[in-house]
């Protein structure tokens, strides 16, 4: 296992759930997940803004993971790490239940062609089960996308999740740095839509 001081998290065992302390030594602090964290622009800015919280990025491309790690080292941040792994596997199998206070899914691949819709994260029951498991009660799931059809798809899927309640997200409601892809889309005059949900406690 890499130590908590190493920005890249390398589990010693990929076939059992990690404990919060294996992710960050001070694993009792609130933790936020950035799924498909790209080059780490958003992840690192969030970690700098919130030194009282921990942040874990999940990204499958090695070059982007290395770029993120470089940013983390340059900023001297100890509350942010990145894991090179596939998102669905990570939330469904590697991360423990009730770990995250917020889960960010920002500018994910929209897979616009109909024949590729099966690849969309929210079309995968395993991903949805992992999302439910890893997010704490009262925690939030936040999504941004430049693709309007994908946005509608996310709203439709989330409307079917009984334990998730949609929340307003007005511009500037809370500090939320722009992501690398978002900056690129905005420079091309594309609009970026956003939505967020709160996970409700179980009905007893
Ligand atoms: C369009 S980019 C957005 C990156 C970043 N969130 C941003 O907004 O700048 C999508 C990122 O998700 C990563 N990605 C896509 N599918 C993934 C998966 N199943 N598991 C892990 N990473 C994934 C890609 O490698 C890519 O870096």
UniProtKB/TrEMBL annotation:
Give UniProt keywords alphabetically. Methyltransferase, S-adenosyl-L-methionine, Transferase, tRNA processing
Instruction: Detail which positions bind S-adenosyl-L-methionine.
Output: 34, 59, 86, 109
Q: Which SUPFAM superfamilies match?
A: S-adenosyl-L-methionine-dependent methyltransferases
Catalyses which reaction? guanosine(46) in tRNA + S-adenosyl-L-methionine = N(7)-methylguanosine(46) in tRNA + S-adenosyl-L-homocysteine
The pathway noted for it is:
tRNA modification; N(7)-methylguanine-tRNA biosynthesis
What does the record give as EC number? Answer: 2.1.1.33
Which GO cellular component term is one of those annotated?
tRNA methyltransferase complex
Cell membrane in keyword set: no
Q: Where on this chain does substrate bind? A: 113, 146, 179-182
**Stored PROSITE patterns:** SAM_MT_TRMB
The first-level EC class reads transferase
| Origin: domain of life | Bacteria
Named from the GO MF annotations, one term is: tRNA (guanine(46)-N7)-methyltransferase activity
**Can the keyword Transferase be found in this entry's annotation?**
yes
Q: Which Pfam families match?
A: Methyltransf_4 (PF02390)
The record's similarity note reads: Belongs to the class I-like SAM-binding methyltransferase superfamily. TrmB family.
Function noted in UniProt: Catalyzes the formation of N(7)-methylguanine at position 46 (m7G46) in tRNA.
Family annotation (NCBIfam families)? tRNA (guanosine(46)-N7)-methyltransferase TrmB (TIGR00091)
| The protein's name in its UniProt record | tRNA (guanine-N(7)-)-methyltransferase
